Amino acid sequence: MASNMPKFLRFNVLPLGLVMVVCGLMGVPSAQARDGFSMELGHGNHTEMVAVSLTREWSQPIYEFESLSIGGYWDLGASFWNPHSNDGGNHQVADIAFTPVFRLTQKVRSHFAPFAEAAVGASVMSTHNVWRGHNMSSNFQFADHVAAGVSFGQKLEWDVAARLQHFSNGGIRNPNPGINFFELRLDYHF
């Protein structure tokens, strides 16, 4: 029966299980955590990318300095890649990722708060052959990023950030060319 299933729907059991666990965790109520929604646009390595994510803030910072704190959020996202390499053989890619994101921000914030973040997550791609000559060897990829941005609004409900994101399989399989994106991201927290 699985062989009749479209290739995009054939996930390994582990990544599908991970997505189910994450969805369950995102539904766990917390008095201080906020949920959110984000949209991203990105470009890199002959590829355009658009993404959407659901987020849940961690209820407590994991470390506090005198004027700064390190907190974070869980990010469950889906992205769609449209490669346009002159080498041809371009394949549209869909990606599902789960990422714990660490965020450094000011402890005392008004209606404007700059932040920096870093993350390493796991992702599953619909195909690892992005374009002719760019085979990422595995549908499983690590998705890491660094970002700088600002939170704003009456309750700091909006975030705008510039991100550098890298996907690669971490050398699990060869070749491992990876792919890099420069992204602009907009978040709304509710």
Entry keywords:
190 residues, mainly beta, disordered N terminus
Protein described:
Helix content is 7%, strand content 56%. By secondary structure, the chain is mainly beta. The strands form two sheets. It has an eight-stranded antiparallel barrel with strand order 1-2-4-5-6-9-10-11. Strands 7-8 form a two-stranded antiparallel sheet. It is elongated, with a radius of gyration of 18 Å.
Shape: elongated
Low-pLDDT segments, ≥5 res? 1-14, 26-30
The major pleated sheet works out as: 8 strands, antiparallel, barrel
Distance between the termini: 41 Å
Please report the total strand number as a whole number. 11
Helix count from the secondary structure assignment? 1
Strand content is over 45%
- The chain-level mean pLDDT equals 87
N-to-C SSE series? HEEEEEEEEEEE
Widest sheet, order of strands: 1-2-4-5-6-9-10-11
Task: Predict the CATH topology.
Answer: Porin
SSE class: mainly beta
CATH class: Mainly Beta
Proportion in helices: under 10%
Explain briefly what this protein structure is.
It contains one helix and eleven strands; from the N terminus they run H-E-E-E-E-E-E-E-E-E-E-E. It is mainly beta and 190 residues long.
Q: What topology emerges from the helices and strands here?
A:
Blueprint: H1 13-26, E1 35-44, E2 47-57, E3 63-64, E4 68-83, E5 93-106, E6 112-125, E7 129-131, E8 134-135, E9 140-152, E10 158-168, E11 179-189
Antiparallel strand pairs: 1-2, 1-11, 2-4, 3-4, 4-5, 5-6, 6-9, 7-8, 9-10, 10-11
